[in-house]
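Hypothesis: this fold can be encoded by more than one sequence.
Test: take the structure tokens below, design a sequence, compare later.
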């Protein structure tokens, strides 16, 4: 089994939706694979912005930098945003990145510049965040938030389905996780993305795979009880993403024109 000397720290701000990858180590063949895995693991959570800091990587072979445009393409396809990279132009790493792939990625001199560019790009993204305490009122509060967001964002035609999905996800978190809960709603283009995050791990309900999140489809027994099967039937896609200290259950709805 191959190992890599490249490790990536993922930072996330649930309130703003800004995610950041900070890889450190050698960008060799195994390092490029590890970086790609780290990026793909974030995408199901539909970040509002995704930053990639490159100052701490060691570029052994410039050809391996081709992984950056490849990741950027996947981010655009899955999330509708650009991967905002940054590297100090005064360093050898910064110079090599610019020489090899500078014209093919969104590359900035520092983190602040990358963050400003991300904010300008995602001005049309609508996002809501609420921290919930597990209990009898959590489902009612989550439904009310979802209904209000659908009304305010001009997508009332999917409000009922969205409320039902959120109810099932919150109920599952309250019954099985019994930890603090984060509810995140993101409307971008033709999709409404719903996320419920907790800090528990329930292997019977949420089997995981080490490389990517699970995608569940109608009829897949792995998703768990009937409530989550209903989520699978109502949504365009749904699944579970497991990190080092939290689990996110998510579902996406297609936003069809109101008739």
């Amino acid at each position: 089994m191959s190992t890599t000397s490249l490790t990536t720290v993922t930072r996330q701000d649930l309130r703003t939706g800004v995610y950041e990858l900070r890889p450190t180590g050698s960008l060799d063949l195994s390092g490029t694979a590890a970086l790609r895995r780290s990026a793909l693991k974030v995408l199901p959570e539909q970040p509002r912005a995704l930053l990639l800091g490159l100052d701490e990587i060691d570029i052994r072979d410039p050809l391996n930098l081709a992984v950056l445009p490849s990741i950027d393409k996947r981010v655009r396809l899955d999330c509708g945003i650009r991967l905002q990279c940054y590297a100090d132009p005064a360093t050898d790493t910064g110079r090599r990145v610019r020489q090899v792939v500078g014209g093919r990625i969104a590359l900035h001199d520092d983190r602040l510049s990358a963050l400003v560019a991300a904010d300008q790009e995602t001005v049309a993204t609508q996002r809501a965040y609420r921290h919930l305490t597990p209990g009898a009122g959590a489902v009612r509060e989550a439904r009310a938030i979802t209904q209000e967001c659908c009304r305010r964002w001009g997508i009332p035609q999917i409000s009922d389905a969205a409320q039902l999905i959120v109810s099932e996800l919150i109920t599952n978190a309250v019954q099985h996780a019994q930890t603090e809960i984060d509810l995140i709603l993101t409307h971008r283009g033709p999709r409404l993305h719903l996320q419920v995050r907790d800090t528990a791990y329930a292997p019977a309900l949420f089997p995981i795979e080490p490389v990517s999140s699970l995608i569940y489809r109608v009829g897949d027994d792995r998703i768990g009880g009937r409530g989550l099967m209903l989520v699978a039937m109502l949504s365009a896609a749904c699944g579970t993403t497991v990190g080092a200290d939290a689990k996110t259950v998510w579902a996406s709805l297609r936003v069809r024109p109101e008739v």
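Confidence is low (pLDDT under 50) at residues 203-224. The domain at 126-254 is CATH 3.30.565.10 (Heat Shock Protein 90).
Hypothesis status: open.
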